[in-house]
Amino acid sequence: MAIADSPAKWTAQQRHARTNQLMACHHELVFRYAYRLTGCRSSAEDISQEVFLRAFKSVEQLRDPRAERGWLLTITRNEFARWCRLAAAQRATSTTDDVADPEAGNEQDLERRDWVQAALDQLEPEFRSVVLMFYFEQLSYTEIAESLEIPMGTVMSRLSRAKSHLKRSLSAVALPQ
Amino acid sequence: MAEPNSVDPKSIDLNHDDLNRDDLNQNGLHFDDFDRRFAGALQDVEVPANLHARLQLALQVAAHENPLDETCINEVGDTATGRMEAAHQNTARPETQPEETRRIVRGNPTLQNLPNLLLNRRSAIAAAVAAGLGGVMLGYRQLTQPLSQEWLVKSTQMLLAQLPLAKWQAFDESEAVAVKQSLLNLGFLRYVHSIAFEGECELQPPHNVQRARAINLGNDMVLLELRIDRGVQNVGSTLNELAWSRSDSAAYAMSSGNTTLVFTGPTNIRGHILRARTT
Fold first, then answer.
1. How much is the ipTM here?
2. What is the full DSSP assignment across A13-43?
3. In B, which residues are within 8 Å of A53 by CB distance?
4. Per-residue model confidence as pLDDT tens digits over A120-170
5. CA-based nearest residue in chain A for residue B76
6. How many CB pairs under 8 A join A and B?
7. Quick check: A139 and B27 in contact, CB under 8 A?
8. How far apart are CA B149 and CA B121, in angstroms?
9. A48 near B CB under 8 A
10. pLDDT tens across A46-78, in order?
11. What pTM was estimated for this model as a whole?
12. Which of residues 113-172 of B touch A (CB under 8 A)?
């Protein structure tokens, strides 16, 4: 489907069709990224949904079809930031026993633990974001720095420290070839 | 069989010769063997089988409910208040709002926005009534005929008239936790874990209603809870009709035993409400 030159003329049907198209192509990618960011499948589903609802609202901004992947992953990252803020608010207002993590706890879950995710979860969100932008989105240092509005040296420093941590955490684990 | 995203906990030496084989990622940066394998492992995530269908449903609802005809477009990150204001611009508010409605609403901060919300009709969404805590049946439809404002005003009056305010009474913590847990058990509200109970209002029970209370869940969400010993048809039907009438917010009514819960919230959580219980 060609992207119209005049976004203001897009109808809801056009937006719906375009977003549906994006969803068909990229929903798995968005879910995977959201899961790696949050470490929680339920939250990843929530974030995936929000990503496409927000895409629907501003799909006319997507002029270049080659930018679809990056555009959606950027929205996903922004939704993750919002998710972090909500989680922080929750920690500030909830008691420890009134919020059950549906994915934590039982022995079966522990046996099936995703060790890669476990290592990621140990990283602070700002480190995790940089790691995933580098390894998942495969952005360059410069692109990460511009996107996060931080110096490139900070990007490299965070990556280096995060990589050291990941290597230590995964030293006893067989990463797939 | 191992989970697709699990890794056998057998030992691997990351100083293996493989590490000497450099590779480049798509941006030309050097990827050593660890980088390459780690990047590959990140993609190894099992995607829920019905995810696409659920996302399509959420998008379908959004497309129906939010036709995006300029004044209703909400920028990413808009507050719910902004959303309501934008939606309200397209809806003529009747000049002759019944005095009784205004009086009741003025006295209840929790319900102050309710009439405005109810008066905005563009399309409608509703969810069906649950048959016990074991499962929730969900429904969705697009209203094909416009509702009259008179009908909405009357319905609002009916609802509010049955929930006269008596006094404010804060929940204790265990009660708040119990309500949260009930919502989680019903499986219709994922965001419940992030809800801060900002205010609760104990309502004087109307006739045949053992207990009634409105709970301001924050983030523009309100929960009305009614405990009814004997069937009061007009309460249930009114609540359901009101749920159907919501267009700029999501509404959900459910019953279990003698308890009826009506949840209302902004549109950005509609998909969560629509999502069927999966666990």
1. 0.80
2. HHHHHHHHHHHHHHHHHHHHHHHHHHS-HHH
3. 58-59, 62, 268, 271
4. 888 988 899 999 999 998 888 898 999 888 999 999 999 999 999 988 888
5. A54
6. 169
7. yes
8. 9
9. yes
10. 788 889 888 988 888 888 888 899 999 999 999
11. 0.50
12. none
